């Protein structure tokens, strides 16, 4: 699976994902540093990549627009060492790769990894 590592994610996370057979690209590699979130989303959709990010804005954008792609892994680990992040990402991709391929948001928190399929539909319109 192609993955787009956001600017706020260490490039070191790419190697273990590559070892698992994924195709990670860091946002710096494609000159996305400082670009709007929508540009990263567009790149991810065009390249059929899941976004890995600490930024909740992506989740909000995908949810409020009721998009089915791009999939994303939303990391909500505070003050985590790169090793903890990488371990959590490996577990998330091991468990949820099929869902991410189909369209999903995987959320990583301390001690918990959850998945929600896209689109996210609620009874409340968010504007």
Task: Describe this structure as you would to a colleague.
- The protein has 127 residues and is α/β, with parallel strands linked by helices.
- It has a single domain (2-117), classed as Rossmann fold.
- 36% of the residues lie in helices and 23% in strands.
- It contains four helices and six strands; from the N terminus they run βαβαβαβαββ.
- The protein has helices at residues 14-19, 37-46, 56-64, 82-102; strands at 2-5, 23-26, 49-53, 72-75, 104-109, 112-117.
- A six-stranded mixed β-sheet has the order 2-1-3-4-5-6, with helices on both faces.
- The relative contact order is 0.18.
Helix content: 25-40%
Provide the CATH topology.
Rossmann fold
Shape: globular
Count the E strands: 6
Q: What is the rounded distance between the termini? A: 32 Å
Name of the top-level CATH class: Alpha Beta
Q: Please work out how many helical segments DSSP would assign.
A: 4
Q: Into which percentage range does the β-strand content fall?
A: 15-25%
The sequence of SSEs as H and E is EHEHEHEHEE
What number of structural domains do the residues give?
A: 1
The Rg value, from CA coordinates, equals 14 Å
- The CATH architecture designation is 3-Layer(aba) Sandwich
Major sheet size, sense and barrel closure: 6 strands, mixed
Mean pLDDT: 91
């Amino acid at each position: 699976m192609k993955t787009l590592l956001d600017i706020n994610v260490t490039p070191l996370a790419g190697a273990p994902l590559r070892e698992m057979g994924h195709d990670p690209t860091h946002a710096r590699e494609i000159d996305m540093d400082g670009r709007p979130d929508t540009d990263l989303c567009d790149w991810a959709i065009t390249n059929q990549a899941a976004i890995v990010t600490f930024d909740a804005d992506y989740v909000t954008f995908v949810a409020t627009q009721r998009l089915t792609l791009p999939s994303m892994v939303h990391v909500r680990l505070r003050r985590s060492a790169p090793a903890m992040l990488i371990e959590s990402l490996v577990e998330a991709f091991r468990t949820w790769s099929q869902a991410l391929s189909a369209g999903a948001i995987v959320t990583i928190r301390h001690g918990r990894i959850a998945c929600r399929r896209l689109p996210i539909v609620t009874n409340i319109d968010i504007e």
